[in-house]
């Protein structure tokens, strides 16, 4: 008997304890954590309670293994991924590699970015960065305006692959082609897509791609940065630390930068995040991102179908090629309804609209139960 994608995914539900306590549709905010993480935490405590410096060699090996697994997951070559605590830290480190001297001083981004992006680039204005934000204020990326804004003044284009606030997805190929034609870098924030939308950084040709574990990747406490290998020799980060050197564990003065993506590392790393996040990465890799994407689209299609039937505005693009992993719904009282849903054991989030984010561990039956509850609470709010 052939096992279908749905049957295979349903068999993994037991790996996520939270699913026995609620309907969890919040992966675009914080993904469900697999039960195997408890074992990681136990081993971590036992290590701390009997500490010897020699433990570092094992930790470093596990961190390197996680980075290697991430590289395979996003179609990247070995040695092109480095991890750190969060995306903001890594993005600022990339920015510290760039020269904003005139006439090439412009950073192009969109009006659908997570607050980290404009906040960091406005900070780099003191070093000459000139931020240009394009968009219409609508739910979709204005790709025509974005491409038009990229010119010979552009140092880099910094864009999200998927919008946190609307669920729209961006055509990265078009952006990369235009940016590279004028000699600009492309920095992609993939936090809202990695783990639910297939990504092949080598095929896309992006220069930098950032993501993290605690959303669709079912991990915790770590973010990552991919760097296109051929540009690594040109990068000299000003925000750095001893672990970016060529031989940090020698504890001597570095002779130079690390040859691989570790040159974008900083100081003493925190091993726990990658060790916890390895559990989720193994599960996702075993399922395969193509199967995850098929299931995600089936689930988000059902959310849209139910919303249409109930007369609820769907903010997210309907075209699957323009949709990431979340469906955003807007209606009067949507924030209050989210709070009522939470009390009823239906977990979603609100960022200007109500965000519904099913993942591979969710079922169509859960989508229907959630939408039934949403319609009920919406009717109560509007009475």
Could you provide a short overview of the structure?
With 383 residues, the chain is an alpha/beta fold. The chain has helices at residues 5-10, 36-49, 55-73, 87-95, 116-123, 143-149, 172-181, 201-204, 272-287, 289-310, 334-343, 364-382, and strands at 23-24, 81-84, 106-110, 130-134, 154-160, 185-189, 208-212, 223-227, 313-314, 327-330, 346-347, 349-350, 354-356.
Written description of the protein model:
This protein starts with a helix and ends with a helix. With 383 residues, it is α/β, with parallel strands linked by helices. Strand 6, helix 8 and strand 7 form a beta-alpha-beta unit. It is 38% helix and 13% strand. The strands form three sheets. It has a seven-stranded mixed β-sheet, with helices on both faces. It contains twelve helices and 13 strands. Helix 10 runs parallel beside helix 12.
Tell how many strands the DSSP assignment holds.
13
> What is the mean pLDDT?
96
Rg calc: 21 Å
- Name the helicity range: 25-40%
- CATH fold-level name of the largest domain: Aspartate Aminotransferase, domain 2
CATH class wording of the largest domain:
Alpha Beta
CATH homologous superfamily designation of the largest domain: Type I PLP-dependent aspartate aminotransferase-like (Major domain)
């Amino acid at each position: 008997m052939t096992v279908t994608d749905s049957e295979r995914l349903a068999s993994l539900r037991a790996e996520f304890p939270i699913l026995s306590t609620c309907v969890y549709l919040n992966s675009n905010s914080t993904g469900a954590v697999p039960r195997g993480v408890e074992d990681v935490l136990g081993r971590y405590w036992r290590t701390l309670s009997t500490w010897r410096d020699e433990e570092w060699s094992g930790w470093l090996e596990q961190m390197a293994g996680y980075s290697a697994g991430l590289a395979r997951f996003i179609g990247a070559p070995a040695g092109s991924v480095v991890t750190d605590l969060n995306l903001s830290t890594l993005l600022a480190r990339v920015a510290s590699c760039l020269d904003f001297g005139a006439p090439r001083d412009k950073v192009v981004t969109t009006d659908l970015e997570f607050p980290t992006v404009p906040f960091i680039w406005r900070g780099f204005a003191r070093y000459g960065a000139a931020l240009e934000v394009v968009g219409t204020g609508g739910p979709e990326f204005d790709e025509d305006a974005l491409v038009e804004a990229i010119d010979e003044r552009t140092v880099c284009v910094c864009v999200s692959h998927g919008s946190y606030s609307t669920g729209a997805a961006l055509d990265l190929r078009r952006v990369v082609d235009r940016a590279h034609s004028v000699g600009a870098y492309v920095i992609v924030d993939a936090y809202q897509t990695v783990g639910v939308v297939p990504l092949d950084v080598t095929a896309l040709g992006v220069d930098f791609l950032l993501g993290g574990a605690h959303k669709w990747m079912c991990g915790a406490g770590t973010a990552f940065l991919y760097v296109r290998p051929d540009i690594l020799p040109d990068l000299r980060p000003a925000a750095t630390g001893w672990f970016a050197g060529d031989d940090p564990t020698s504890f001597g003065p570095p002779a130079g930068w690390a040859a691989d993506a570790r040159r974008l590392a900083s100081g003493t790393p925190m091993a726990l995040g990658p060790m916890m996040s390895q559990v989720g990465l193994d599960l996702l890799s075993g399922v395969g991102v193509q199967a995850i994407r098929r299931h995600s689209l089936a689930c988000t299609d059902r959310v849209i179908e139910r919303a249409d039937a109930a007369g609820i505005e769907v903010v997210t693009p309907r075209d699957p090629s323009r949709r990431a992993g979340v469906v955003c719904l807007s209606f009067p009282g949507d924030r209050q309804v989210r709070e009522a849903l939470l009390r009823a054991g239906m977990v979603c989030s609100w960022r200007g609209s109500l965000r519904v984010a099913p993942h591979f561990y969710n079922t169509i039956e859960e989508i229907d139960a959630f939408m039934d509850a949403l319609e009920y609470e919406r009717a109560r709010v509007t009475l």
